[in-house]
Amino acid sequence: MRQVNFNQPAAASSETARHINRGIVLNLIRNRQPVSRADVARFSGLQRSTVSLIVEELIADEWVVEGSMGRLPRGRRPTFLELNQKRAVVSIDIRPSGITIGVGDVNGVFTPQDAFSTPPDPAIAVKELVKRIKTLVKKRVGTPFDGIGISMPGRIDLSTHQLVFAPNLRWPVMDLKNALEKATGLSVELENAANACALAEIWFGRSGEMRDLVTITVSEGIGTGIIAHGQLISGRRGMAGEFGHVPLEPDGPMCSCGNRGCWEVLASNRAALRYYAESRPDSAASLTFTDLLALADHGDVLANRALTRMAVQIGRGTRMIVAGLAPEAIAFIGEFTAAWSRFRPVIEAEVQAQSISAEPTILLAGENGATARLRGTIALVFIKHFGPLAPSVRQAANF
Prior knowledge:
By secondary structure, the chain is an alpha/beta fold. The protein starts with 13 loop residues before the first helix and ends in a 13-residue tail after the last helix. It is globular. Strand 3 and strand 4 (about 100-105) form a beta hairpin. The strands form 4 sheets. It has a 5-stranded mixed sheet with strand order 5-4-3-6-9, sandwiched between helices. It is built from 12 helices and 14 strands. It has 3 domains: about 15-85, Arc Repressor Mutant, subunit A (Orthogonal Bundle), CATH 1.10.10; about 90-200 and about 375-385, ATPase, nucleotide binding domain (Nucleotidyltransferase, domain 5, 2-Layer Sandwich), CATH 3.30.420; about 205-365, ATPase, nucleotide binding domain (Nucleotidyltransferase, domain 5), CATH 3.30.420.40. Helix 1 crosses helix 2 (about 35-45), helix 4 runs parallel beside helix 5 and helix 9 crosses helix 10.
């Protein structure tokens, strides 16, 4: 729910109630589609007349469509309701190595459309994005785009909408949001990659009923997204969750942020490749993390050791999160989850070795990890329409 400021209380109005009921109905349709009007009324506790009025409004606004008809033993056959899959967003995932662009629908289905290498100059990146977004939108005549959602490997200041911390991307502080909005005419929502994955888990994944969840993304670096009491936690200037840059070994390797021994420099994909290269100096410089997983699967002892070392370090950092935040569950996102049966026992052993909680945190591989960031950008754009109150409320609760 919206945070209440008791110093400047605002009285509830009939409009407030209307927004709340609209959000409840829309989310019930989203979670239970296809569903009849009668069932929406039953699940929500609202009067059937109220549900009918809201549904007609949602149909007129093209959020909901009528689909197939149900069958009952007797009486009038109900018409099922479902979300309008034609509504779409432009979904963009920016990583240090490349940028992926595609189209996502209201049900979280993402269709890739384009990809290109990430330019070192953000001005060039913006120019290239604008060109490709315009081409994509032009090709999909008749598709109502609700905006652009962008996942970033860095932190976004929510007050200025600027990228303020992206050590792996190496872009300076910049305003990507306004630049793209002016050029495309579409609203833009930006979010840190780990936060985007947290939204994807809550909005589209199996973790929808969890109120306290942390996502840990492991790729070139490590990021964490925090859901507490159903709210996505941002912190001051959007910097909450930067556990990847907490030093675990003060005398360890230099991190891209300028400190030594940060969690991500010890437990990321790049860390595993470094461990392997240290044990096998003759290994190819072009070796990728996927290659390393394949070598381990084929019995390469040194590859197995490198991945085990990575898993131990992931577990050490996870132990810090469990002790500090006590989440119900932690969902891991990244290429390494393809070998989850290898990583999970090691991570769990590290976490349990010094656990202070009587009730263990559930550790699981995130759902659809390959597209989690992009599915998170879909939720990022649509969530403001599905929330029961004002669009400014960044709420991850499921209704």
